[in-house]
Amino acid sequence: MSGNPDDEELEQLRQEKMEKLREQKQGQQGGAGGEAQEAQRQQAEAQKKALLRQHLTDGARKRLNTVKMSKPQFGEKVEQQVLALAQSGRIQDKIDEEKMKQLLSELKPDSKSFDIERR
User: Considering the domain boundaries, does residue 65 fall inside one?
Assistant: First the structure.
């Protein structure tokens, strides 16, 4: 890794979560597959939050959370885009609020087109 303390913490958290999942899988009997799926979902959510914390400033995270509260599907789409950019290495610095505004405006669906149906 790059030696960044955030990267090291993230990797350590991943390793701990993987160990917990392995222990849960070994200790489970046949019908408890739902718990493992829930644990995996929680692990994925924790990793997503850690990556977002690492690549977004506080202002950008607040703006993203506001968008997610008002438009959950659009907020998820933006989150996925930020994560994809981060994982591909295309984010050099943290995304600040201005960059987040630009990203939101680029991903925003065209709100000017609408259809009116008369009956």
Answer: yes
Range of the domain at 48: 5-13+39-105
Exposure string for 46-66, b = 16+ CB within 10 A, e = fewer: eeeeebbeebbbeebbebbee
pLDDT in tens, 19-44: 877 777 676 545 556 788 888 889 88
**CATH code for position 64:** 1.10.8.140
pTM exceeds 0.70 for this model: no
Helix (H, G, I), strand (E, B) or coil at 117: coil
CA distance 93 to 113: 35
Q: How many CB atoms lie within 10 A of CB 95?
A: 22
* Closest of 117, 116, 84, 88 to residue 103, by C-alpha: 84
